[in-house]
Amino acid sequence: MMEFVAQVGETVTDCLAYVGALATLVTRASYYAFVAPFQGKNSRWPGAVSQAMAVGVRALPILSLITFFIGLILALQSAYELRKLGALTYVASAVAVSMSRELGPLITAILVIGRSGSAFAAEIGTMRVTEEIDALETMAIEPVDFLVTPKFLAMIVMMPCLTMWANSMGILGGSLFGVAQADFTWVRYIRSSLDALYLRDITTGLIKSVMFGITITAVGCHEGFSTGGGAEEIGRSTTQAVVISIFMVIAVDLVFTALFFFAGER
Amino acid sequence: MPENTKESAQAGTVISVRDLRVQYGEREILHGINFDVEHAQTLVILGGSGSGKSTLLRTLVGLEKPSAGQVWMKGQDLAKTSRAEMDEIRKKIGMSFQGGALFGSMTVGENVALPLREHTNLEDSTIEIIVRLKLDQVGLAGFEYYMPSELSGGMKKRAAVARALAMDPEILFFDEPSAGLDPIIAAGIDHLILQLKRAFHMTVIVVTHELASAFLIADRMVLIDKGQIVAIGTTEEMRSSTHPRVRQFLDRVPEPEVSQELDYLQMLTEDSRGTGRMAGWRRGA
What we know:
The complex is a heterodimer.
Chain A: H1 2-35, H2 45-55, H3 60-85, H4 91-129, H5 132-138, H6 143-181, H7 186-196, H8 199-225, H9 231-265
Chain B: E1 13-24, E2 27-38, E3 42-47, H1 53-60, E4 68-73, E5 76-77, H2 83-90, E6 93-96, H3 108-119, H4 124-137, H5 153-165, E7 171-175, H6 183-200, E8 203-208, H7 211-217, E9 220-225, E10 228-234, H8 235-239, H9 244-250, H10 264-269
């Protein structure tokens, strides 16, 4: 029994330490992103642009396809129930609201974890193994500043953009069903989608997406930095980065959804 | 240990190491190291694999923290420097890593330019000229647009030296400069180190286990074994030393069988396992 309690205690402290390490990394990255440039240090925006290309722009084709399908699936699934009530016209609002409040940000985050979170961990992990991180330090270049800050900036800019795009593509996917099966015209479908949306639905989704972006960057980079020696370690930390990021994103999603729910009640 | 205790504060002493101890977790790797390096001198740190020589080098450049003792570099105790002071010291040193440690996503030229872009306000055109100059110094003129992956092992090391030279350092550190290179390329690297020393009067610290190369480039030598200094002195003093451990190392006598817990030959062949966090990957380098 005592052993069990000790085990639980150890796991909890490990988790807290992990979250603490992530928070430290985020704090340092934000310092180098927003404070250090005003103290005469190099700005990391130029590096962030190329990261933004990799994280954001190159993700657009696959993101469009996935969220288009998700929108279509949502329309089909909600139509299955709504048809029984003869409320097929509500398909448009069901798709629009669930895409912008939840699925847009979440699907975007999952895709970005797979494309970029894993890449961050692999890149920094490889640099750790080949002594490139040590080389940065001996050149008096702070690795967090040089490696994490551009990724961090790229993510907090690109995640909301990608999410907006995902929302639109989802609604477009839903409209395919609406026009083909529910007697909508394209214009009427889009209009009733927009009518159903409040600004709050979109902003909560965007706020969540920024939080997801910060989480994904922190986990990916942290796993990269904690890579041990050897090539097999890079694979391990990449896998870890993906698994932990997915868990953390869902946890952050829960926290913020609950927060918005109770804040919206008032 | 002769001649190394009192003159620490003397002018001309660039690095002083006093009773240096370094631990990884519970295991102590270096057990009280003392030596000095004079200005414009080349010190070669010799030692077998697992002797702690790479750890010593990593501690000298501030990558490892001493658990006790001090490293004085240009009159400053590394353990007591702030981050900003450490950065200032690091701008005056250059380090060439064993595998080169060039950034794979940048061209050779961008690699050499990186410290200049980070620490100076020089114009791009000036930086370009400096990069060409540094690459020319290491015999890599015209390679600035190559990616590190397109270079051979010896060229990577040369490029790494060019990057280490970018900020015109006063002290240059080399980790195993000739490891993994064929004899001709390795001799080329030795020649490069000698040239740099003669042309720029740099203080050079080299960690190696290659005897021929060590005797060629060294002014003074330190032999480290099991985390302790066995002998220290000029190349002549080393050659004429009668210390059994020195003789064994210089005459390449294998460890007598079953006498030690670790087989010396095995130690030599299994390259520097356990000397650093990165030790594992070096097998392939």
